[in-house]
Amino acid sequence: MNRFLYTLLLYAMLPLALGRLLLRGRKQRAYLSHVQERFGIYNSKPPGKIIWLHAVSVGETRAAAPLVDKLIEANPDCSILITHMTPTGRETGEKLFGGRALIRYLPYDYPFAMRRFLNHFRPSVGLLMETELWFNLIHLCKVNGIPLFLVNARLSEKSLQRYLKFENLARRSLTELAGIAAQTKEDAERLATLGAKNMAICGNLKFDVHPPREIPDFRNLLDERPVFFAASTREGEEELILDAFEKNEEILIILVPRHPQRFIEVESLLKARRISYVKRSENRKIDSRTRVFLGDSMGEMFAYYASCDCAYIGGSLLPLGGQNLIEAASLGKPVLLGPHTFNFEEASKLALEAGAAIRVENADQLASETAALLGNPERLSAMGKAGLEFAEQNRGAAQKILELIESCRAPSGS
Q: How far is residue 404's CA from residue 67's CA, in Å, rounded to a whole number?
């Protein structure tokens, strides 16, 4: 596939894209706001030179925070533009950077929409977080002389095989980038297979995200039971976890689905199973009969981690690749991982080697390992300390990425 065929395919899929937007809007009305921005139509722009960073959703936005801080510090005369694709990402951006950055949606990758975007904001430099390869956008940045970087870049073996199906298109786009900051050596090697040039291994930005100084205390809502936190669970995992922990009544479960649109779905599951629960949004104290504390709030993951004794990282019991384990480790919480962690392959490997995490093969083993861990205060403490050291030793990616950007930009800074 070349870029022309890719663009034709995008146009053919336009009705589907609009239909999907409307469908999502039924479940989450925020998808129906700022629709014009998804086609490159904007009503304002910040003054002066603009540094632009794109972070698709919540995880990428939180990870970008240390880098945004560095960019603001190093470029006090520039304005910061941050774009997203999801309402939750945009909401997170507003909370983290509101007043310090302009928050907008990035358009769909249609040439006319991307031209409007670039002509309106005219960024002096652009940064794409992680694995966001927007082929028309990348080409138009190259044509317009806008240095565009792929930062905190990761590429799993599964994603590599997918990109190899349209290798020519991926190879052309990667070579049009001004530079790539890969998370790990393995990521860099896979990107090199697709023809990536001008790469540096900078580490994972998520290690640079420090816990807030003040974290809400949910412990005052909980009782004295040991607390197991099932964090960022995905479709199908809640049933497995509830089945496995059914007989562990002495353990209180904090359950937080990955996506906010699933809060109601998981609550319905608890009702159908007649499992006693209390929602975070109710802000009331649980009693000894409560089995589950259901996290139905956004932006409070550190508070949930701070309130638990150990945490399972969702998306890893099923072949979904896992979620971010670094937040838990940075608060000194022992981590349990399922067999599928390819989205965080290097971080998972390092955490296991450091003694900060335990690998389990299924939900039953998750329940048994959790019970054993909660019954062993010495091991619990040792794993927590190992997690703190693991998180601290791997910081520094934001500074390395900043240095890569500065070394690759033209002397004029344009």
A: 12
Of 329, 312, 303, 309, the residue nearest 395 (C-alpha): 329
C-alpha–C-alpha distance, residues 375 and 215, integer Å? 26
Can you list the domains of the chain with their CATH numbers?
3-203+396-408 (3.40.50.11720), 219-393 (3.40.50.2000)
CA atoms within 13 A on the CB side of 231: 31
Angle between helices 111-121 and 135-143 (to 10 degrees): 50
Element (DSSP H or E) covering residue 232? strand 227-233
pLDDT at residue number 332: 97
> Which phi and psi angles does 230 have, rounded to 5°?
-95, 100
Count of Cβ atoms closer than 10 Å to residue 317 Cβ: 28
Contact predicate 355/382, CB 8 Å: yes
pLDDT at 412: 40
Distance CA 344, CA 320 (A): 11
Q: How far apart are CA 198 and CA 219, in angstroms?
A: 48
Distance between CA atoms of 374 and 104, rounded to whole angstroms?
A: 44
> Is 287:311 a contact under the CB 8 Å cutoff?
no
Cα separation, 376 vs 137, in Å, equals: 53
Place of tokens 């050596």: 185
CA distance to 110, 155, 160, 164, 174, per residue, from 3 (Å): 11, 21, 19, 15, 13
Nearest 5°: the CA angle 398, 196, 140 is 85
CA–CA dist 325, 340 (Å, integer): 13
| CA–CA separation, 373 and 246 (whole Å) | 17
Q: Which residues of the chain have pLDDT under 70?
A: 409-414
Three-class DSSP labels, 43-64: CCCCCCCEEEEECCCHHHHHHH
Provide the edge-to-edge strand list for the sheet that holds 335-337: 277-279, 292-294, 252-257, 227-233, 310-313, 335-337, 357-359
Please tell me whether the overall predicted TM-score, pTM, comes out greater than 0.85 for this model: yes
Residue 76 has phi, psi (to 5 degrees) of -65, -20
pLDDT of residue 409: 64
Residues designated catalytic: 60
